[in-house]
Structures are given as C-alpha cells and as structure tokens.
Design goal:
CATH architecture: 3-Layer(aba) Sandwich
Shape: globular
Number of domains: 1
Number of strands: 7
Order of helices and strands: HHHHHEHEHHEEHEHEE
Distance between the termini: 25 Å
Length: 224
C-alpha cells in the first residue's frame, strides 16, 4: 500500500502521475488521495508531457513488448492513455483499462482525434480496484507502466492476471528500481526488480527476463 510521504517540489508532479496509474488494482489507498489534488485534465496534461519520452523511452518500451504489427494488449492503469494511444497508432488492438471513470471519459474524448482505424483498435474499459477484469485468453500481452508498486496484495492480484492469460502471452512491467534515484517515488515506496520477480513467481509465472540498464530510473520485466 502506498503511504503518505513528503515529496520535493520536483518529484511532486511526477508522483501524481504514478499515483493516478494505480488504476486497476485493489483497495483505494493514499495513492489515490494524492491524485485528487488536481483535476484529471491537469494531471493528464502532465502525464502526456512530451518530455516524458526522454526518460520513459516509450518507443523502446513498446518494441520490447513486441515488434509485431498485429498484437492485442491490455494496459492496466492506463490513466490518460500515454502508452495505449501509442500502441493503437502502431496498429495493435489495445484495451486501456482504468477504474477512474473520468480517465475513461478523457480517453474517449482523445479518441475523437484518431483516424477511424485507430479508433476501432483502441477500446477503453472501466475496471475495479480488486479485479484486472481481463477476458480469459483475449490478449497477447498485459502491460503496466509505473503501476506495479501501487498494487496491494500483488501476489493475489497477479494470480488473477496469470489465470486470464493465454499460452505464450506475456506480462510486461515497467517500474522504478530501488537505488536509481531520479524521477519517481523514494526508495521506501519502490519495488525492486528482484522483489517483483519473487512475487510474480509466487503468483505462478515461470519465465522471466529483466532489463535494468536501458531506462535511467526503471527496469523492464517480462514474465510468462
């Protein structure tokens, strides 16, 4: 569970982003309280700041999910759709899942600016905090960005994710590594890549790969 912590002014804006993306998790905690300090539109403007690509390296992240042109992805905690819209423009079938109806409405508004094929490829899904709500066998990958460390009862939650995944589907997690500093929450709130792997093993995942070098503050973990 996220605990209330004092952030520097520099980190406050970034942390609002991370807090908002607890979207499809378990109980509502302090992280969600932080989200309500600003309106959804104000937060979305920060989430979609073009400068985010400088450290998030979204193109590289998406390539690690797949280089295929035909792919189905379920994003947990999509927020404003920073990644989901990029994936839809790549040609993928994307479900942008979030339990906040305001973010769902915002993404539906943003869809109006997409081409007709892109609109058809991107769906939004209002979920709950306790259930990932992924239809069994429906997607090639489940994706989370800056969300994992917000989830309560992670082993239980990801058992549900695992049960929904078809054979050879993958789980891709991008989150903040302990000791890497920079943007993001303090170490006391981060979940290291090694702990993430241990928890996912307990949830039933067997195969893992972890990249700890490409992203300046984060790791990218893939599990099957």
């Amino acid at each position: 569970m996220i605990r209330k912590t004092r952030f520097s002014n520099t980190l406050a804006v970034l942390c609002l982003f991370f807090f908002s993306q607890c979207a499809s998790h378990t109980s509502r905690g302090h992280a969600n309280d932080h989200m309500h300090h600003k309106s959804v539109k104000e937060l979305a403007a920060q989430f979609d700041d073009p400068q985010r690509d400088e450290w998030q390296k979204s193109d590289w992240v998406i390539d690690q999910i797949s280089k295929s042109k035909n792919y189905a992805v379920w994003e947990i905690g999509a927020g404003s759709g920073f990644f989901s819209f990029k994936m839809a423009k790549k040609g993928w079938q994307v479900t942008a899942a979030d339990p906040n109806p305001e973010f769902i409405s915002l993404m539906e508004e943003k869809k109006l600016n997409l081409s007709i094929p892109e609109k058809m490829r991107l769906k939004t899904k209002l979920t709950t905090y306790n259930q990932p709500s992924i239809p069994k066998g429906a997607v090639d990958a489940v994706f989370l960005s800056n969300v994992y460390h917000h989830i309560e009862n992670r082993v239980v939650y990801f058992k549900l994710v695992k049960e929904s995944m078809k054979k050879n589907a993958k789980l891709v997690i991008v989150d903040f590594e302990e000791g890497k500093g920079g943007y993001g929450p303090p170490d006391s709130m981060r979940v290291s890549s090694s702990k993430c792997r241990r928890e996912l093993e307990e949830a039933g995942f067997k195969k893992f790969s972890v990249n700890q070098t490409e992203l300046p503050y984060q790791y990218l973990l893939t599990a099957e």
